[in-house]
């Protein structure tokens, strides 16, 4: 039970400033017990202010679970931000004894009174009041079941983590998939002229053949010969999940030295035998998730594989059921039909967890619904046959990086929850407004991309998919034959050697140094100047890269200055992406510096509207994104802009908005058609909000264009507003800081002048 709080005893009667004038009297019940009459005040006027209670009565069905450390309003603001529908208070003084007892129970035990309306729950949250001496409540709306699932997770400081299986955690093959891959590589070797590539493919075939022979021996004799040692099967009991209740024993051989397991999906059918390779460092990640018996994450699996296969693969990964208990396994392992999009809302079935409290680990981003992609940590596909040493090429293995990302996400989420949201919720009173509610954290806010790319040593062509699809096992379980000429459906999209992917070691590609995940320095003026700025400011400049998994392969490079992202570049090669990222970073540095210096000191007296390319220097050659934001946004103009430029402009505008706002205030972008799951008439509609108040709206054929338009309008509103309700969220002018390195901001005039001269010198040297 939570420590009781003393509600203040004795803004104005009638719901406070945040509620619309004029209350409606309703009768309150707890089940069939009459609690008295209450006055209900909608939060908004007009059609949007309609009251949510049917039949003009408030009938409480039950109380929410007790929360040990989080008041109900903090939980509701996290899972359903700014969802306060109305306020209500007891009509009579003194109040009905039953209503008074209900109020004290909810207030002291961190419970809420729940009114169920269809698939919606209305939570009555007991609120302290500055002046009222009767029970007072805020009424918040949330999807049915999500509150009960979230209260325990937030009290335990626990988030959800969703794993993909194939090529993320494991690679599995049957005899058929082994033979298909060996045959495909043999055909490639027949037409290949490059002896280096031939050697690489030959080594890959040998690795396939070696494991195929082990699998064949397992199928024929239930044993394998590993380095001269005969290893027999162990019968492992499997709890039945679907079908009958018969006891199932599977023959399994575990080879820890090879990081491999042999199993049989259907113990009665030897052709369902599978050779499984586990990704290195899985034990480290699993140990973190279960360390010291403290649950840090609720674990889920979402895969496009066949269900029985997926359940067995997860059993091999979690044999003691420490991550997912046996009675939760059926609902925690979610299988998606091939070709469909994965979606967190479907994974949790609207009740297990709120998507904003979940992160995903997958080797492919595009298989996820677009609204969930910001919560996906993308890992390189596991390729043990093509590049067996690639996993250990980096100082930190891929799954250890994933562990570190999960740790950082959890720490950032609950730091925001504890230090900002909880603190402010405890200060709120019944008379406060909707705008006074604090920003709610989202896992996507803390999921920073880390460079987990590696460069295999072999110079082979791009690999074929290494693991079989779950559909293959499904067909075997159903007794379907496999013709020799049947094409194996790839479980992920791969590149051909025509794509010229430097990551695979193709000649002419970019060399990558594994020094903290940074890229090798390119002979670019922008990169040189950026690194010089970092050296003079004694700040670390990092380049981190990712590779898209779409058909048109693109490289994306982010620039981090003292661990803060200041630029991003997208190109067909890493060199191109790095140069673009460095250029954008310099633009953002200049924009932020000028926006900081111009209103405070008026240091630079330049014509910032001069078109790009009109000067030789760093300061003269770049257009301020801040000035662009002052132009009237045009939907047709946004459609014509390059996507990468729009992303960069959006980043710049958001940086300027953050500088105008207080540290604990955040502008939130809301998708106005998010419930439909798709764009409206081919267009996306976004609105920018600060504390629940709309600052700007944007419409575009692309989400980023719509966000950019909303952000520019919001920036214009913040700069020109006289509304005291908005200005209270803004910094006083004298407190504005340069966001990247405020302690060195007084040196930047000389620093930027130096970089300008350096660019001129370098350009003259190249020209000569």
TrEMBL record:
Cofactor needs: Mn(2+); Mg(2+); Co(2+)
Keywords tagged on the record: Developmental protein, Hydrolase, Metal-binding, Nucleus, RNA-binding, Transcription, Transcription regulation
Residue ranges occupied by any DRBM domain in the UniProt entry: 525-591, 652-720
Any one of the GO BP annotations: negative regulation of DNA-templated transcription
UniProt keyword annotation of NADP present: no
SUPFAM superfamilies xref list: dsRNA-binding domain-like, HAD-like
Residues annotated as transmembrane: none
SMART domains, per database record: CPDc, DSRM
Broad enzyme group: hydrolase
Domain FCP1 homology: residue ranges: 154-402
One Pfam family hit: NIF
GO cellular component: nucleus
Annotated Gene3D superfamilies: 3.30.160.20, HAD superfamily/HAD-like
Catalytically driven reaction(s): O-phospho-L-seryl-[protein] + H2O = L-seryl-[protein] + phosphate; O-phospho-L-threonyl-[protein] + H2O = L-threonyl-[protein] + phosphate
Location of this chain's protein in the cell: Nucleus
RNA-binding is among the record's keywords: yes
Gene Ontology molecular function: any one: RNA binding
E.C. code: 3.1.3.16
InterPro entries in alphabetical order: dsRBD_dom (IPR014720), Fcp1 (IPR039189), FCP1_dom (IPR004274), HAD-like_sf (IPR036412), HAD_sf (IPR023214)
Protein name, as recorded: protein-serine/threonine phosphatase
Organism: Oryza rufipogon (Brownbeard rice)
